Amino acid sequence: MNKWIQTGCAIVCSAFLIFALSACKQEAKLTKVKVAEVTHSIFYAPLYVAVSKGFFKEEGLDIEVNTTWGGDKTMTSLLSNGSDIALVGSETSIYVESQGAKDPVINFAQLTQTDGTFLVAREDIENFDWDMVKGKTFLGQRKGGMPQMAGEFVLNKHNIDPQKDVDLIQNIDFANIANAFASGTGDYVQLFEPTASLFEKEGIGHIVASFGEESGRVPYTTFMAKKTYLTEHEETAEKFTRAVYKAQQWVEKHSSKEIAEAIKSEFDDTEPDIIEASIDRYKKQNSFSTDPLLNEKEWEQLQMIMDQAGELPKHIPYSQLVDTKIAKKVTSEK
C-alpha cells in the first residue's frame, strides 16, 4: 500500500478513535437522576419535551423516568430511595409531613398549575349544567388524591354534595377507571387526557366541563425530593430545574402541533390528532406552568381544597415544604 495512503488511513483512524473516546467520556459525565412520575400523561408534556429536546442532557443529566401509578406508590419510591425526584401532587408532601417525617419531602419545581381532569358524560349534552350531575352515577378518583379532592371542590362549588347528591364510586383503581366507564359503568366520569379526547373521538363519552377551569390555580403536580437530597445534590437539582424551565418556555412558545410532534414517541398508541387535541385543551386553560415557581397563593388554595374534602391532616406553612431558591435562581438567569 502506498505510504501516503497508509499515513492517511492512520490519521483517519486516530481521529475516529479520539472522537469515539471523547464521546464516551462525555456520555460518562452525565449524572443519573431517577424520576418517579405518578402517571404517564400528556398533562406532563413539558417533562417529555425536556427529554426529547435534549434539555436534560444539555445540563449533563441522564434522566430515567419510571411511572409508578399512584401517589402512594410514587411517594414510597421516593422515601425508599427508589427514585431521586418524584413528580406527583403536592398534597402527598403534606401527608408525609403530617406523619412526622424525619426527612421532609420538599416541593422545589412546579410543572402543572391546574387540575388536569375533565368531566366526561356518557351522552352528548349540548347545554351542560352542573345540576345535571345530581342523582347520577359518578366515577370519581382515589379518595385523598388531588383529582378526587378537586372534583369534590367543584361539585360543592355548584351546590352538589358529592356524598349525598350523586352516586359516587371510588373503589376502582386509578388505572381501571376509564375501562370501567367504557364497559358501561357510570353516567359521568372524571378523566385525564388523552383518554378524555379519545373517548370523545370514539363516541364512548363526551367532554362537557373542565375541572381545571373550575378549581383554579393549584400546585397540582410538582417535582419534589427529600430535603437531604436537595442539600447533598443541590447542583444536580439546579440543573434539573433549569432543564424543566427550558422545556416550560419551549412549550409556551410553540404550537400544540409542534409539542405533539416533540412528545409523540412517549405515546406510541395514541393518534397524533388526539395528542394535539389534548395539548390544546391544556394550553387553552393554562394548565402547564410557564416557570417552576410555586407561589404561596396556590399552596393555600391546595390546602383549602384538601380541607373542604376533609383530607387535610393539619395546615402546613408554605415555607415549611416549599423551597423556591433553585427555581428563582434559574428563572433569573439570562
Automatic annotation (TrEMBL):
Its main location: periplasm. Pfam families: NMT1_2. The keyword Signal applies. Residues 1-25 form the signal peptide. The keyword Signal applies. Gene3D superfamilies: Periplasmic binding protein-like II. It is found in: Periplasm. Keywords: Signal. It comes from the Bacteria. SUPFAM superfamilies: Periplasmic binding protein-like II. Belongs to the bacterial solute-binding protein SsuA/TauA family. This is ABC transporter. It comes from Bacillus atrophaeus (strain 1942).
